[in-house]
Amino acid sequence: MINKYFQSACIFFLFAFSFFLLFSNCLPDEHKHALNLILGSPSSANHTITQTAPQSESYSVSITVSGLSGSGLILQNNGSDSLSIVSNGSFSFSNSLNSGSSYNVTVFQNPSTPSQICSVSNGAGLIASSSISNISVVCSTNSYSISGNVTGLAGGSLVLKNNGTDDLAISANGSFSFPTPIASGSTYSVTVAQNPNSPSQVCSVGNASGSVSGSNITNIAIACVDSYSIGGSVTVEGGVLNGNIVVTNSTNGDSKTVLTTSSFPYNFTMSSSLSSGSAYNLNVSSPSGQTCRISLFKGAVVSSNINNIRIHCLNGNKGAIVGGLSIQGNMSGLTGNMEVAAPFTNTIFAGVVSGNLGIAGAAVDGSVGNSAYFDEPYGMATDGNSLYVADYHNHLVRKIDIATRTTRNLFSVENVQGIATDGVFVYASGKETNTIVKYDLGTSTLTVIAPMVWTGSSYRSGYADGPAGTTARFNCPIALTTDGVNLYIADSANHVIRKIDLNTNIVSTVAGIAGSPLSGPSDNAIGTLAQFNNPSALILDADGTSLYVSDTSANKIRLIDLSISGNPVTTIAGFTTGAAGASSLPRSGLSTKFHEPLGIVSDGSNYLFVSDAYNNRIVRIAKAFPNTVTFLSGSGSYSVTSGVATAAGFYTPWGIAFDGQNLFMTNMGNVVRRME
């Protein structure tokens, strides 16, 4: 009886102990530790909690075999994991792979009795968080070659692949054949694994894929053409980049990362080269706290490397530049008040004032605010941090730091009047000298696009399209606007709108008839059949196709639609007869009288802002029909008086620009103003 009870007790103890072990393994580690302390575990005095590192999930690589009638077929994955196949069907390799691992399934041994050739399709790639199940292996007693012809190869080593695995190096033009035949019923897919690089070429594959069906494939066509690199340089304000930036070519998805550790100026080359005739369109990201802008970013390759793309990064988060003049943004909050709010209460933003008038004077580099002299400032543009001002009689482009109001002398242009910036370059034009130049903000390099030529009695002028440096002629290029690829010019005394392709420096006429000014009713005609009368300002809108023009002596605002063949011109505002006047506002565009409208900018969406110069007021024009014109600021008096919208005075307002917060304008009365 005792033995019976003893045996039962042992069984119960073993069962309870097993349950305890199972239960304790289910406890969290901190509870296990407490339980060990209670039970007096020998390790409880010095217990260390350990956690097992999570195991990466692995994925299988499977294949489907068809057509197999022989024996002895052996497949391999990545050259080592062998899989013997004895029948048709689906099979998996024994070794699973982690996500991100590569796989490469090949035939290690073809079957015999009967002899067959087996071909692998979709055999190579990367694991991406799922098992691979689309690999097919087709076996056939009949196999056929994959071959073709290479043309245009100029040297170097071209490497082709068939089905991602069968490599073939080619060094000369002519016929080629892959070393591994393909079983009948299998697919083939020929790709370029390596383009030749001595010289650099891009090779394309014609008739690249298909199925083998009872005959050799002989029509693979490889065509190689010379390829060219795409690149340029990066500069950074202060020389320090806050974070990596990425340059992307939207035409092919190619990208290049510029690291913060780079030494600036930094020369970059995109990863992929392009054949002649191929288009490129680059854009650049911006790191936190900085704004990077790109110039000469778009074009087509023409039998040479592209190395003139420029990127410049400045400090601060700034919006996009519209037309090279103004920052895109919501301007609905503008009050029309001029220098009323602190810290500019009744204080002109920049310029020396006596009484109600600005005082002309020689430019002094480094002057601040109301100690800075100007002498008839005309055109103006901004990159969001600085204002760039054409100081006409001082023959200087001036740079005003918006935050500190410090005015610097940036570069010299005789009789400078037109100005624009894409954030990388500042473009400027000399009115009487008929010259156009660009200044690199990152390298401080000044380049002449269209030279000024002294003829003995005057500067060369005229009208002709062609290369800007030689054939082309201008006659008072008075205003500029740009998208960083093209520079548009109000060629005022020729009464036309011109364009310079900044990649080629070729000048063409966009709209207008040279020497034939508009008089009387509007001439809304196709581009080069339309007429203008001393166009003196223009803005390319954010859409890149709407070009608005202040047709000054015609007292009209015109729209050139670059998206339509022929560049049709329409009048959106200004009295039908072109008569000057000062209409009460608001009213529709075509019923409004202006008196020589000059500066014009866009908010990039709904409105234009125009300096109605000889009415000494600033107005807003809706882009949508009926193009309602609304009063914004100006008492009509010739003065530079600060004050609320209806009391503020202007002295022939000219250039106009928005920095994302305030609207600035130059006055021929030798000052720069700020609207709140």
TrEMBL record:
<dbReference type="InterPro" id="IPR011042">
    <property type="entry name" value="6-blade_b-propeller_TolB-like"/>
</dbReference>
<protein>
    <recommendedName>
        <fullName>SMP-30/Gluconolactonase/LRE-like region domain-containing protein</fullName>
    </recommendedName>
</protein>
